[in-house]
Amino acid sequence: MTTDSSHQLWIYDTTLRDGTQREGLSVSIEDKLRIARELDRLGIPFIEGGWPGANPKDVQFFWQLQEEPLTQAEIVAFCSTRRPHVKASEDPMLQAILAAGTRWVTIFGKSWDLHVTEGLKTSLEENLEMISDTIAYLRSSGRRVIYDAEHWFDGYKQNPNYALQTLQTATDAGAEWLVLCDTNGGTLPHEISQIVGDVLKAMPLHTQLGIHTHNDADTAVANALAAVREGASMVQGTINGYGERCGNANLCSLIPNLQLKLGYNCLPKDRITQLTQASRLISEVVNLAPDEHAAFVGRSAFAHKGGIHVSAVERNPLTYEHIQPDKVGNSRRIVISEQAGLSNVIAKARTFGIELDKQNPAAKQILQRLKELESQGYQFEAAEASFDLLMREALGKRQQLFTIHGFQVHCDLVQGRVSYCSNAQATVKLTVNGQNILEAAEGNGPVAALDAALRKALVNFYPQIAEFELTDYKVRILDEYSGTSAKTRVLVECRNNFQRWTTVGVSTNILEASYHAVVEGLEYGLLLHSTPVLSN
Amino acid sequence: MTTDSSHQLWIYDTTLRDGTQREGLSVSIEDKLRIARELDRLGIPFIEGGWPGANPKDVQFFWQLQEEPLTQAEIVAFCSTRRPHVKASEDPMLQAILAAGTRWVTIFGKSWDLHVTEGLKTSLEENLEMISDTIAYLRSSGRRVIYDAEHWFDGYKQNPNYALQTLQTATDAGAEWLVLCDTNGGTLPHEISQIVGDVLKAMPLHTQLGIHTHNDADTAVANALAAVREGASMVQGTINGYGERCGNANLCSLIPNLQLKLGYNCLPKDRITQLTQASRLISEVVNLAPDEHAAFVGRSAFAHKGGIHVSAVERNPLTYEHIQPDKVGNSRRIVISEQAGLSNVIAKARTFGIELDKQNPAAKQILQRLKELESQGYQFEAAEASFDLLMREALGKRQQLFTIHGFQVHCDLVQGRVSYCSNAQATVKLTVNGQNILEAAEGNGPVAALDAALRKALVNFYPQIAEFELTDYKVRILDEYSGTSAKTRVLVECRNNFQRWTTVGVSTNILEASYHAVVEGLEYGLLLHSTPVLSN
């Protein structure tokens, strides 16, 4: 293993663009911003944000980042080369990419002659012109350019000379990186090695190559590794391998392979330990169940079954584990006896600014409660406000602002020939400041009705509640084989004018799960007003 | 691509042994027999059935196969070398493996000196003795032997001379195959290439090597490919990559890579087209949801999104697909999405066996309805049954099996000092075969109650409804800015004994959205019984 500090690799994340092509994955602007900030925090140097010329949602995303920029990462706007036979300066798509206001842009163009003549229906010369004109125009507008050579490997196999001409054209026009894309995803590692080696021989010295692979042959990670070993210095991929068809190269596998096994620098040393958390948080944001068997970051990645094996693992972990799990922020797990560690809780409390001692009975109490709730399906990774409330409770610092005695919800729907008429009502009963209150409200759904009734009941006592907004509401079914009787986990995100917070509720009854999350969301917002902030 | 018929590779399936180590996977003897017969039908030459010395269930499994043998495959019994300091002929574990009555047995032994001294707590010499004595005894009892060299790659890195001695010992004792196992799963492809090459140089000519890899570095498939390219001629893996931690090398990826891309013979030509079906059937038998994004066999593996792209794919598939999907028994799928054009609708209809003409007013009607529903937040990518119903409707082929007039749902929760009591009831009103029915039911959540009431109302008319199961229920909030008033999209997956189907519902009221999806799920299941199948 080498640890030569000159082994710098540039990680380029495309979760927000290519990752969102995954069937069944859809994200809001808020989701995209949250993911971008998480990737920034993780120390990813390049984050591809989207294609502002093709998607109005992406236009707004880039605007919002102009107002509140990322701290370290370069946010990159993505776009194709200009259309055939128009000037780059007159193509509205390129105006949109300039309006995104990023320092870096990625332009993708055709490498495969067949895609030029059959897909674009233009000449091979015009394609070179499109690459050159587009990149030169963006350079003259002050942008730095990464060039994605689409369908590179298939194109090179069919017509290597033309494929190389497209790269040379991009370099001559001012592209600083040439990224070889295996767009159809079927290339095997030995072919990648061969072709990347060929390209480096054919191109001028100091050409910077990148690699972008897909998992259609189930070798996306190995393909990227093969390219890096030949000399590629930028690696494109997505968190959790999200992407069209079989997905993109998974950065959660690539980064530890490159950094911990091959000695390249990808992320700052203190950040790679946050990889597992980032993987799980992002899977929550996009509302997909995390892959428990994922390499490095999956819940089962370092799971050991009980017995002699376990004590052997504990005596000498490296004889049974390919890396130490904490190097990527994951943990060893003994499958039979679920042993969540006290040190985990203490580390977690520290992230909320609370110093707990191992001897403090509150620490044990938090751990026990945590295990109890997790076995019921609670999950606090994306619901830190609920975890904060749990800690306050154990430490005797959870102020009782109101007591709820119960609720009722009623819904009905009359189906006519053309239209429906549906209606939801909720009633809540609670005590605030010694006063008993019964309040009812309507809503266009049962959860909205419940939320409205709670607010009506509380607003006279806590007028600041009028400022809270419920900004997101996510539902996940935990044991999907039980169908509609399955357990439901609800995440509710609220905000006031200053911050956002997320709470969680679990039940077989979706309304009960929602109720718990909504109530904690309101409670936490009120506590933020009345006591020092513990989390954000 | 070579198709030299001398390129014979031996596929060795260990789904029934190593695959069942996957956390959350458990199988009965019946399940194991069903899987073994499916693998036999697929043409897999070696099927590892289990460890009869360690597991009474496996003893019985082998007995049952003696009574009703497989047609072509060799069923293999698995066992460790004998214990230290006993004779092989007196080790009851080896008696159990002989009693399994297989022609072939696989014996695993230690390659890594540290595992001998620390794990087995015996001497390096005794470990060699254990390998030699065990294999020689089994050979003298008429068995053919495959030797699995456990922890091979890590062991070789630490002490190559000793590791090679273990292999030489196994060969000398009569093992016909030496299988190099990456037990901890962290080795990278270039290391595999290097070490397999070293071994072939060090061992006698005509030594037959096998490769057994795990996916802890997310490179299991590439690792096996690297070994084969160096000269290994047996490949061990599991269907769907099932296995401990991050799983084993996935045979559903390896077989097509080896056979269709590298030209090796693995399965008979007419069998590889059954790979997708085998993958899905086995996932059903082990009761795990299929990975929709799996390479080659996943439902999304050949999915294409909208517009110009689709007509380009149909004109010239190999410019957008790394292999033809039907070569592995999968199919191209046109994803019905926001950008759907008329050509998409027509292509999609074709996959349901319906030929639509561009001039057919039904085609335009379907497209219009699709766009209308999509703008309301419907999404048919994952809800093909709902799309099928929509097409039937436009074509006048949607049979009216029942008419629902409305529903009512009531939920209440009383919050006590310690526990909650929550309750959900639903009432539905419908007409079936001219009869008006009012039916009520309870459930542990409002959707379960609604589902139960609908089934109670329908089961007397359509008894087959008792066979349907709701297997998955997914909820997504669409416009999160509206918080709990947001639009909700619900996907419901049902199955009967033969197939699965998914339906969708959208509303601001989560109960109404669920209701629509559940009703369409029941309707579609009934139509599958009463009319020719349009989709699967």
UniProtKB/TrEMBL annotation, chains A, B:
Gene Ontology molecular function, alphabetical: (R)-citramalate synthase activity; 2-isopropylmalate synthase activity
Top enzyme category: transferase
Associated pathway: Amino-acid biosynthesis; L-isoleucine biosynthesis; 2-oxobutanoate from pyruvate: step 1/3
GO biological process: isoleucine biosynthetic process; L-leucine biosynthetic process
Catalytic activity entry: pyruvate + acetyl-CoA + H2O = (3R)-citramalate + CoA + H(+)
EC id: 2.3.3.21
Record-annotated Pyruvate carboxyltransferase domain positions: 9-273
Keywords for the protein's UniProt record, in alphabetical order: Amino-acid biosynthesis, Branched-chain amino acid biosynthesis, Isoleucine biosynthesis, Transferase
Pfam families: HCS_D2, HMGL-like, LeuA_dimer
PROSITE patterns named in the record: AIPM_HOMOCIT_SYNTH_1 (PS00815), PYR_CT (PS50991)
Similarity annotation: Belongs to the alpha-IPM synthase/homocitrate synthase family.
UniProt protein name: Citramalate synthase
